[in-house]
């Protein structure tokens, strides 16, 4: 049986092409030939062979069956039972004139989606992969997506497989079209998850920057893996790498955790991408966590891992871990890069591990790397901050020899560090080089140099720097002026200090505090004359000081005996609303007690009056008679002490009592002194002075009292002991007077004049109670203990009348001093 096939070429070249390639029509399924029967309404049945796989230059081939008008199509699958599976008929290929071009066995039909081959005569010829891929690509590119594309794919004349799909995905450029093809393939019975297929899809999605699509596809891949994690090894890693490079931190880490939970293996490149991501995001500890996971998984570290982890660990402060990796890297014969060396040198230096930093620095040079300017700066800064200036200076020299020019900040650091360490010669040398290099020193650098020269007492150098600074148009800071003024004050250069202070005032600074500080320098130094001179300068320049300094200067004048200069200071103090307290008044009274010149006593009395303190009113009233006071001495003293705030002035009141009793004893006013002591004891100013221990021991402690207060306390207390023993019959085993080493001799001399039974030991005078009782019965002792006013002499009374003119002479006893009181000791 012979079938004839007419060829209708478009031109002669096409005819020649068909004739020369008819064997391809039979043997190569890439043309995608398909046969069908078409009824054209004539007695002949025509066999139509379409060449859809050809390009635009391929002609249409039409075959006509002339002998079998009732021809029925036969499929290779054998589903048509009426026809044989074999086709042995010959086919004649005719041209337009009817001439035979070629004769050969016919090509059997195939059933789409079932047959994976074509029949060439009796031989099965499989479809080539290239042909299948080309057909799939053609359909996808034409229809893109949707039902039409899927219908065309369903009509393919062959059974695709995953290799065809994977290759087609690689050719298709559009990611949406690729996904459509992939979705169609997944619904087919022959679909199997394929790692290469997923990788191709992820590549497409990454190229289109569709990271949401990548994440969705990744989740779908996890679901489809079905426990076969190793089949998707490369695609898993590719997803994390793409997401990490896109800086999708949370998404990439989430995918990483999902892969870990699934038990899949993660490669080194993926770990490196995650480490890079976390390091760039400023999360070094998270990067180190990824590194630890990498070690736990047994994944080998490559050079890039070390390049990422060592600088990250070093910068985050985990220096031990960084240095361990550095050593491990060298052991594995990886060559450290300059970045690793630079990070270790910088981090070790800043952490104070200078020996390690220098070791890495020297090792880096052994690897042939040349230190950078940044590394030199980092090393020099580290050694300067650690105080190792010699090493810093050596690195400074190396930096200059290497051809690097120190920057402004480095010059400043070297100058200031050497200046602060006292190496002023080196500091000034570098400072000179800094100026020659064209850098204008900052006020901070000038101030540092000036202050250190001032601290070392170098006035000339400090003034030279100050003049250089002002000539350069720089404004000295407050600390600079303070240091310079302090230096000039210590050197007692009052005039120069005044000039600098006025310049400081012209700069707009408030100079009151600095002027007061200079005044305090003179006061503490004891240069009262210079202090007064400086105070006069301040007053003439309209510069004010505070009351505290005025008081300090006043007290200095009092100590130096400059009473005439002290009074105006006190008046200034009082007139500025400052209140003279009891301590200040008592200190003036103490000067009066020690004064031996009548003229000075007059000045001191004038100063006491200028205080306007209530204590002076009390003193004047104390020396007047009862007619003027309108009340007895004891009541007058009690009234004064009731006006003292003991919560605030308890210590000042004790001080006042001690000085006042000294003065009263010195003036011979024993009765008044005893009244003061009695009231002071009543107000518990000396609560532990007198102790009554029943019948065992009675004691008096006068160690914290002045000489006058101690004498009055002994006389008054022994008088109380006498009343208890004689009137009440209470006799203790012993009586002791605790005097301490200072007052022991004074009290012993006073008691020895009346033949007392007290024995003197190191710090205590003690006697048995019975002996003291017998001693109390003597008339001389009674006269001694009840003595009211044992006055000194007429000249003393005359002095008293001069100092306190309000006191009435008729109330004073002009009798000579009684032998019971040791006049010299008083």
TrEMBL record:
It comes from the Eukaryota. Residues 700-776 form the Smr domain. SMART domains: SMR. PPR repeats lie at residues 267-301, 302-336, 337-371, 372-406, 407-441, 442-476. Keywords: Repeat. PANTHER family: OS03G0856100 PROTEIN (PTHR47447), OS12G0638900 PROTEIN (PTHR47447:SF17). Belongs to the PPR family. P subfamily. This is Smr domain-containing protein. It comes from Davidia involucrata.
